[in-house]
Structure formats: C-alpha cells, structure tokens
C-alpha cells in the first residue's frame, strides 16, 4: 500500500467518526462532496376530465351487463 492510499484510508475512516455526520472537519476540504439531489421533474398535468364526486359522466357502479357485475 502506498502512502497516499493509507492517507485516504485513514481519512475515510475518520470521516465516519468525526461527529459531524460523516463530513470532514471544516479545516479539510471535502474530498468527495455529494451533489445536490436533482429537483423532481414537474408533475404530470392533471387530466382534462374532472374527477369530482358530483361528476356523473361515469356511473359509480358498473352496469349489470358488465363482466365485473356480481
């Protein structure tokens, strides 16, 4: 093992026990900063048909001829 890899291993080990939730002390630059999570994409547009309880476009119960009836 080279000196550099030993230093990295020590630094990596110390990061977990630094007491600052995995971040290195403020005097050391973060060797691998986590990128900010990407913002969620815009939600899908609402359907054009209103989904209101008073909407009587569709019957609440399936018609008797439906295979789901009974």
Mean of pLDDT: 60
Main β-sheet, in a few words?
none
Tally of individual helices = 1
Low-confidence stretches: none
Number of strands: 0
Principal-axis shape: rod-shaped
Strand content: under 5%
From the N-terminal CA to the C-terminal CA, the straight-line distance is 73 Å
Radius of gyration: 29 Å
Order of helices and strands: H
> Helix fraction?
10-25%
Structural class: mainly alpha
Question: In words, what does this structure look like?
Answer:
- By secondary structure, this protein is an all-alpha fold.
- It is built from one helix and no strands.
- The longest helix has 14 residues, at 3-16.
- The chain starts with a helix and ends in a 54-residue tail after the last helix.
- The model has no long low-confidence stretch (mean pLDDT 60).
